[in-house]
Write a structure and sequence with these properties.
Layout lengths: L1 E2 L26 E4 L5 E4 L4 E4 L4 H15 L16 E6 L1 H7 L4 E6 L2 E6 L2 H14 L16 E4 L1 E5 L5 E7 L7 H13 L4 E5 L1 E2 L2 E2 L8 H4 L3 E2 L2 E2 L8 E2 L3 E2 L4 H13 L3 E8 L4 H6 L31 H17 L4 E5 L6 H5 L1 H10 L4 H17 L4 E5 L9 H8 L19 H6 L33 E4 L4 H8 L3 E4 L2 H4 L15 E2 L4 H5 L10 H5 L1 E8 L7 H8 L2 H10 L10 H18 L21 E2 L8
Length: 630
C-alpha cells in the first residue's frame, strides 16, 4: 500500500536532515529517499517472501516485528520476487561481491520492500534496519496500539560493516547472568548490529560451564560463600552465597539462539591465572608444593588472586579434556584462553615450576607463562581452532624447541589432527571477513578459515593466534606488525564497567570517566598502523566486567547508551575522531532512546542516573583526569 502524503528528505551518507526521520543507529553508509517520497504501508495483507537461505530471517521477522505489530506476515506466493505488497528477502551474489556477506541493500518502494544481502547475515542486518524504520513500537513484544497499518518511508539503504569482529565481552564469572539474561543480551546485540558475544566463563570467583568429566568444577567451583560489595577496599559484604552455571543444554540453546541472529559466541576459559575457582574444585591443579590448595575456596573478593595453575603435565591434560568438551559446544573458530594477569610469586617459590623452567629452557616465570599459552595455542590449531588471548600472551621469550614444534604443527598430549592450511586473505577480506568471525557459526566457512598460514611467529605463537589488546593500543600494534590478527579493546576507551560521569550520583564509580562521546570517538585502528598491519585489526570489542555490576539493571546501566556509540564506531564508515559528528549522533539517539525504552533497557539517561539507579554508600575506585592512552 502506498501513501505519497509524507515528506522524506535524505542525503548521501546520512539518513535525513538533523532532527528528522527515523534516527538510524548505527549510521548506514548511504540512505536516499525514493521519489515521490511517500510511504509503503505494512498491513494484514503484507506477506514475506523468503528466498533460499533467508528462511531464518523470515522466522525472526514474524517472531519480532509480527509480534510487535500484530500483523501475521504470512508466507508470500510464487510472485513474491516482484515484491507486490510483500517483504522480499534474497541472498544476492552482486551484494556479496560489492559489499561482503554482511552487506545489504534495502529498498522500500510503493509496492513493497526488498532486502538483498550478501549472505543470510546481510539480509538479517537489513531486517534490523527495517525494524528501526517502523518506529519504536516495533521493538515491543506485543502490540500497544490498535492500528493495523504501519507506514515505512520510501527509502533506499546501502550498508555494510567496517569490521568483521564487532564484539562485546560479558563477564558471567564475577556475577552470574542466568540463561534468559544472556538470551536477552543477544537480542540487544543484534539490534545494534553487533556480531560477537565473548562469554567470560571462568575466573577466581566462579566457574560457569558444566564439564561432564569434572563435575566438581560446577559442584564446587560455581559457588562462593559471600561477595564483596563495591570495590575490594570496601568493608561491606553480601553474606548470601552467590553462583550458578550453564548446563551443556543451556549453552547449546545460547549458541543456537545467537546463530539465528548471526552472532558468534566466543568462550573464554582463563589460564593459567584467574583460576582459583578451578583449583578450589580440584586442588591438584594448584601449586601444592607452595600452598595448601586443599584449603582454598572460591574467591569471594575482587582483584587478582595469587593462586594460579601449576605447570604440570596433569594440569595440561586436565585442561585439554576441558577444552575437548568446550569445542563440542562452541562452533566458533576462536577460543579465548585469557592468559592475562598471572602473578608469578607461587611459581618463583615452587620447585616443580623451577624444574619446568629449567627443563624447557624457558629462562624465567614470564617464559613459563608463555610456554603454558603456546601449548594450548598449538593444541587448538591442531583442531582447526584459533587461540585468542589478552595482550600478555605476547610476553615471554619462546624456547627454540617450542618454536620448532610450533612451526611443525605442534605436539599434544591428545592425538593431533591436521592444521588447516591456506593463504592469508587479502587486506579487505581480512577486515570484513566471511561474515561473523566463527566457523560453523554465522558467516560460515570451514573451521580455521581466514587464519594465516605458515610457521610460528616471533613469540612462538601459531600464526592464527589472535590478540585482544586491552591494556591500550601498544599490544595490538606489536601483534599486528608481527602478523597476528588483533581485536582492539583498550580499557581507556571501551571498558564499560568504568564510570560514565564524574558526578557523585554515579553508582559504584570505577576507573576513569568514559562518556558517551568518548566511546563514540573510539578509533580501533591507531595511526601507527598502516597497510597490511592496519588490516590485521579485524575489529574491536567493548568489555563489561561485573565485579560491581551484579544485576541485569546494572548491566543495562553500564552498557547503554554507550554500547550504541560503540556499535556505530565499529559498524559505520566514520571519519577520523576529530571530524565525527557527535552532535548528529546525539540527535539520532533521541529516536534510539525510544527504542531502548520499548526494549525495557534500564539505560543511563543523558541527564544522569535515575534515583533507583544510584548506589549510595557503596565504595568505588574513581580515577581522576584523562586516561593515559598507551
Amino acid at each position: 500500500m502506498t501513501d505519497h502524503g509524507s515528506d522524506h528528505r535524505s542525503g548521501r551518507g546520512t539518513e535525513r536532515e538533523p532532527g528528522h526521520g527515523p534516527g538510524l543507529v548505527p549510521l548506514p553508509r548511504h540512505v536516499t529517499g525514493i521519489p515521490p517520497h511517500g510511504v509503503f504501508v505494512l498491513d494484514e495483507h503484507t506477506a514475506v517472501g523468503a528466498g533460499p537461505g533467508t528462511e531464518g530471517v523470515a522466522r525472526w521477522l514474524r517472531a519480532t516485528v509480527g509480534a510487535a505489530t500484530g500483523l501475521p506476515l504470512p508466507e508470500a506466493g510464487d510472485d513474491a520476487g516482484e515484491h507486490h505488497d510483500s517483504i522480499v528477502l534474497r541472498v544476492s551474489p552482486d551484494v556479496a561481491r560489492e559489499l561482503g556477506p554482511e552487506g545489504y541493500r534495502l529498498r522500500v518502494e510503493g509496492d513493497g520492500i526488498a532486502i538483498d544481502g550478501g549472505g543470510a547475515a546481510g539480509v538479517f542486518l537489513g531486517a534490523q534496519t527495517l525494524r528501526q524504520l517502523l518506529g519504536p513500537e516495533a521493538f515491543r513484544r506485543a502490540p500497544v496500539t490498535g492500528r493495523r497499518e504501519w507506514p515505512v518511508p520510501m527509502t533506499a539503504v546501502e550498508d555494510a560493516p567496517r569490521f568483521r569482529w564487532r564484539g562485546v565481552l560479558l563477564d558471567v564469572a564475577r556475577h552470574f547472568t542466568p540463561k534468559d539474561g544472556v538470551l536477552r543480551f543477544l537480542d540487544l546485540l543484534a539490534a545494534h548490529k553487533l556480531n560477537v558475544l565473548h562469554l567470560h566463563l571462568t575466573d577466581d570467583q566462579g566457574w560457569r560451564l558444566e564439564i561432564e568429566r569434572y563435575p566438581r568444577l560446577t559442584e564446587v567451583g560455581a559457588w562462593r560463600a559471600r561477595t564483596k560489595l563495591g570495590h575490594r577496599a570496601s568493608p561491606l559484604w553480601d553474606e548470601r552465597p552467590h553462583g550458578g552455571f550453564y548446563t551443556k543444554d543451556d549453552i547449546r540453546e545460547i549458541v543456537a539462539y545467537a546463530a539465528e541472529r548471526h552472532i558468534t559466541v566466543v568462550p573464554e576459559i582463563d589460564v593459567p591465572g584467574h583460576s582459583q575457582a578451578a583449583i578450589a574444585a580440584y586442588p591438584e591443579l594448584g601449586n601444592t608444593d607452595v600452598v595448601d590448595t586443599a584449603a582454598l575456596s572460591v574467591w569471594d573478593t575482587w582483584g587478582i588472586s595469587p593462586n594460579v595453575l601449576a605447570p604440570t603435565d596433569h594440569t595440561l591434560a586436565f585442561y585439554e579434556n576441558v577444552l575437548t568438551e568446550v569445542l563440542e559446544l562452541f562452533p566458533s573458530v576462536f577460543v579465548h584462553l585469557g592468559g592475562d594477569e598471572c602473578p608469578k610469586e607461587q611459581w618463583k617459590a615452587s620447585p616443580a615450576a623451577r624444574a619446568r623452567i629449567e627443563a624447557e629452557g624457558l629462562g624465567d616465570e614470564d617464559g613459563l607463562q608463555s610456554w603454558f599459552i603456546r601449548h594450548f595455542d598449538r593444541w587448538l590449531a591442531a583442531r582447526g581452532r584459533r587461540l585468542v588471548g589478552w595482550d600478555e600472551i605476547l610476553e615471554g621469550a619462546p624456547a627454540a624447541s617450542d618454536e620448532a614444534e610450533g612451526a611443525s604443527g605442534g605436539a599434544s598430549r591428545a592425538e593431533s589432527e591436521p592444521e588447516p592450511g591456506g593463504e592469508p586473505p587479502r587486506d579487505e577480506e581480512r577486515r570484513q571477513g566471511a561474515g561473523a568471525p566463527g566457523g560453523g557459526a554465522p558467516g560460515g566457512g570451514a573451521p580455521g578459515a581466514g587464519a594465516p598460514g605458515g610457521g610460528a611467529t616471533k613469540w612462538g605463537l601459531a600464526p592464527g593466534a589472535t590478540v585482544s589488546s586491552w591494556r591500550g593500543y601498544a599490544g595490538g600494534i606489536a601483534a599486528a606488525e608481527a602478523g597476528h590478527d588483533v581485536v582492539m579493546c583498550p580499557e581507556q576507551w571501551v571498558y564499560l564497567d568504568h564510570r560514565q560521569a564524574a558526578g557523585p550520583d554515579e553508582p559504584v564509580p570505577i576507573g576513569y570517566v568514559r562518556t558517551l562521546e568518548d566511546v563514540y570517538l573510539f578509533e580501533p585502528v591507531p595511526p601507527e598502523l598502516t597497510g597490511e598491519a592496519a588490516a590485521r585489526v579485524i575489529g574491536a570489542q567493548a568489555n563489561l566486567w561485573t565485579e560491581v555490576t551484579e544485576t541485569q539493571q546494572r548491566v543495562d546501566y553500564q552498557a547503554f547508551p554507550r554500547l550504541a556509540a560503540f556499535a556505530e564506531a565499529v559498524w559505520s564508515a566514520l571519519p577520523a575522531p576529530a571530524d565525527r559528528d557527535y552532535a548528529g549522533f546525539e540527535r539520532r539517539m533521541t529516536a534510539h532512546y525510544a527504542r531502548l525504552d520499548a526494549l525495557g533497557v534500564d539505560y543511563r539517561p543523558p541527564g544522569g542516573p535515575r534515583p533507583w539507579q544510584r548506589r549510595p554508600g557503596l565504595l568505588g575506585r574513581p580515577l581522576d583526569g584523562r586516561p593515559p592512552i598507551v
